[in-house]
Amino acid sequence: MTSITILDGGMSRELVRLGATLRQPEWSALALMESPDIVRRVHEEFIAAGSDVITTNSYALVPFHIGETRFREDGRRLIALAGQLAREAADAAGDGRVRVAGSLPPIFGSYEPQLFQPDRVHDYLSVLVEELDASVDVFLGETLSLIAEAEAVQRAIAPTAKPFWISFTLQDDPGAEARPPVLRSGESVEEAARWIAGSNAAALLFNCSRPEVMRNAIAVASSVLAESGRTVPLGVYANAFTTDEDGAANETLHAIRDDLSDDRYSSFACDWAESGATMIGGCCGVGAAHIHRVKQRLSAD
Q1: 61, 32 in Cβ contact below 8 A?
Q2: pLDDT value of residue 253
Q3: Which of 91, 108, 126, 205 is 20 to 30 A distant from 117 in Cα terms?
Q4: Contact 141, 177 (CB under 8 A)
């Protein structure tokens, strides 16, 4: 089997497990304000579990979660701190194998493609890029619901010398796995993969959707990229959310499935690897124990 890059898992539930407070709308940003030592411990636990890449806890450092005033007054400090904590944890591993990915979230809300504002997105993305640049090895535009968000990430990181990865989130309602895969905007994975083929992105991933819908997305993306003649690594990091949630992304704490053990999640991971994914980790609700088991099984294979 091709060598697999092991990503980390979801930050928020691991913060809670280690004693941090989690609430909306601040979500994981609250730990940077109140208990940054726990943020670093989460990074360290993912590294100990086998992660080759850890992601900065900058996902919620946008006005959608912390408010416009706090973003303007304290956003730069918090973003820089998120980068610093991840960099310190990666460097402490001592062997240089652990890379840091700078999380660039959907600026106007997770799963909210209709809220995207092309005339304002750069005002916020540029702050994230500027403050993370000193600490990260690669930028990661993640949980993106539409192609325009990926285009905005590409523009924002252009002044840096860093590579960037793009990760889209998929429609994952019950039965979605039986349909052609689409982004939450309704754009097809085929369209998204064509955009990737013509971009400078160094990887295409799918995240923050149920594990069941990921294999089809990898298959479609792989086919499109092969036809384009461009070799781009593919990756997956699914979430563990249940499918019966209501409310906006920053209004409630989503429930976590009780049927997604580390063994079952690692079985999905092996399936994704067989389908062509070479970058595998976890998103919301997927913890260090899951990542450790994924590492074990993929290393054995």
Answers
A1: yes
A2: 64
A3: 205
A4: no
- What average pLDDT does range 77-94 have in this prediction? 97
How far is residue 189 from each of residues 10, 197, 201, 221, 241, measured CA to CA in Å?
Answer: 23, 12, 15, 7, 21
The one-letter code for the residue type at 233 is P
* Torsion angle in degrees (nearest 10) through CA of 45, 46, 51, 56: -120
Q: H-type helices in the chain, by residue range?
A: 12-17, 29-34, 36-49, 63-66, 68-92, 121-132, 147-157, 189-197, 214-228, 262-275, 288-300
Distance CA 282, CA 262 (A): 11
Sort residue 216 into left (φ over 0), alpha (ψ -120 to 50) or beta.
alpha
Amino acid, single-letter form, for residue 113: P
Token representation of residue 282: 């976890």
CB 156 within 8 A of CB 162: no
Distance, in Å, from the CA atom of 217 to the CA atom of 230, rounded to the nearest integer, reads 17
Of 281, 266, 270, 191, residue with least CA distance to 8: 281
Both tokens of residue 251?
Answer: 């209004």
